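Input record, target 12 of the design panel.
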């Protein structure tokens, strides 16, 4: 089983930071909350800080755990630990050539994302729905 951490980072306008997985990798071409694998003996928060710096060239502060996701397919089992996080230094860019962008919750719900992200994305998209009168 692969244990992966992912950062749910919002900007001042409430948009989410997402990155597109490189084609040729597992789930290539899909959008995701940025992060990566936890190495043996590494704390999840430390892994997340390391991965974000390696992939996006920024420093983050990791906040509380948000939720988790699970996905199993023919090639692997993946447990994703999602954490709230804040940018503390730098502007994110794709250090590995990946596309990076900020999206609102409604756009997030329309992006093709890994199956382990589905429940979190649905939850975040509900926050974008207008209040119903009645």
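The sequence produced for target 12 reads:
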């Amino acid at each position: 089983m692969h244990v992966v951490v992912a950062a749910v980072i919002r900007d001042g306008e409430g948009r989410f930071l997402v990155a597109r997985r490189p084609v040729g990798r597992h789930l290539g071409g899909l959008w995701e909350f940025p992060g990566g694998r936890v190495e043996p003996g590494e704390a999840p928060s430390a892994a997340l800080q390391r991965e974000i710096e390696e992939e996006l060239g920024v420093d983050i502060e990791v906040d509380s755990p948000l939720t988790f996701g699970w996905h199993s397919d023919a090639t692997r089992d993946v447990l994703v630990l999602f954490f709230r996080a804040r940018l503390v230094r730098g502007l994110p860019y794709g250090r590995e050539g990946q596309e990076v962008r900020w999206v609102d919750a409604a756009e997030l719900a329309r992006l093709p994302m890994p199956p382990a992200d589905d429940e979190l994305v649905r939850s975040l998209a509900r926050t974008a729905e207008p209040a119903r009168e009645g």
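The domain at 2-126 is CATH 3.90.79.10 (Nucleoside Triphosphate Pyrophosphohydrolase).
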